[in-house]
Design brief:
By secondary structure, the protein is mainly alpha-helical. The chain has nine helices and six strands, in the order ββααααααββααββα. The strands form three sheets. It has a two-stranded antiparallel ribbon with strand order 1-2. The chain has a two-stranded antiparallel sheet with strand order 3-4. A two-stranded antiparallel ribbon has the order 5-6.
Length: about 230
């Protein structure tokens, strides 16, 4: 792995932080530029974008109540160096953006964020790969990575490749799936299904019925998705 990307004089510049920043640039570039071309004004876009950012940061931290409850106090500390998890970030970002959007009476713009979120996840997982984090359980597979004293599943690479594929699908569907937030909800469903499976080879501890906190969150999201699509059919 390559945790330090380069040095700026005596100061190391860490790969993870660089790619987190690049991911945010990708997120807003892919979401906001097409929305602007479609006629949205910056006065509408920026408050929602701010809600997404604040909600995402809070969500990735607070979700550790479910994901790693025994480390919650440590992970809530913004100065601890801990980062959070992407499921909490997605949920928090959605809620933050939705609260702002509805409070201001703006139309839903989740469909612009769907392919943007998939592309951003690819960039973030490059940061995870270079930083040597978010790896999985031990394995003897030939593409294993040697981290934490063992050969392990490169689950950060699995997730990056999945999101790359998902980005391609969502990008092709962006002009066909036009119902309010429908493309975003499709992203949620696909990611929740994939991440539920991925958790079986990750390292998060089980918290309920042998399932990890991430899996519990994913199941909750899938139930909500089922209710939403059922209501759409009625």
């Amino acid at each position: 792995m390559h945790p330090i990307l380069f040095h700026a004089g005596p100061y190391p510049v860490f790969s993870y932080g660089v790619f987190i920043t690049l991911g945010l640039i990708v997120l807003y570039a892919i979401a906001l530029v097409p929305a602007r071309r479609a006629g949205w004004e910056w006065e509408q876009l920026l408050p929602i974008a701010s809600g997404v950012l604040v909600g995402g940061v809070c969500g990735m931290r607070l979700s550790h109540v479910v994901v790693e409850p025994d480390r919650f106090v440590e992970l809530l500390d913004f100065y601890s160096g801990a980062t959070g998890n992407i499921v909490g970030l997605v949920v928090g970002g959605y809620l933050g953006g939705t609260v702002v959007q509805k409070s201001l009476g703006y139309p839903a713009m989740g469909n612009y964020y769907a392919p943007a979120m998939a592309a951003t996840s690819v960039v973030w997982r490059i940061g995870c790969t270079l930083g040597g984090c978010c790896y999985g359980q031990e394995t003897g597979l030939p593409w294993a990575v040697h981290l934490a004293g063992a050969d392990r599943h490169p689950t950060m690479v699995y997730e990056g490749l999945f999101n790359l594929l998902l980005f391609g699908v969502l990008w092709r569907l962006r002009r066909r799936v036009t119902g309010d937030n429908d493309l975003l909800y499709l992203y949620f469903a696909c990611y929740a299904l994939f991440r539920f499976w991925l958790e079986f080879i990750r390292l998060y501890p089980p918290v309920l019925l042998g399932l990890t906190g991430i899996q519990v969150l994913c199941l909750g999201g899938l139930v909500w998705q089922g209710v939403y699509w059922r209501q759409r059919r009625v």
